[in-house]
Each structure stands twice: as C-alpha cells, then as structure tokens.
Specification:
Layout lengths: L1 H14 L5 H4 L5 H11 L2
Length: 42
C-alpha cells in the first residue's frame, strides 16, 4: 500500500540504507520494520 511505501522510504532516509522491493513487500507491521532495520544495519 502507499502507507507501506512511504514508511519504507522514511526508513531508508532516516537510516541511510536501501531496502530492496522484495524485502519491503514483507514489511507489514511496525515490528517487522524494526526487526528489518535492526538485523540489516549491524
């Protein structure tokens, strides 16, 4: 959804990273977004 796209874009900007579309499609909750950022920015 558009909300998810906006969330992913905000995460990419805030954490200076790139989230692939196939991974972004799996992020449907705030917790999943947190988990993704935590596991991919270490």
């Amino acid at each position: 959804s558009l909300d998810t796209v906006e969330l992913v874009m905000a995460l990419e900007e805030e954490f200076d990273c790139e989230i692939p579309d196939e991974e972004a499609e799996k992020i449907t909750t705030v917790q999943q977004a947190i988990d993704y950022v935590n596991s991919n920015l270490k």
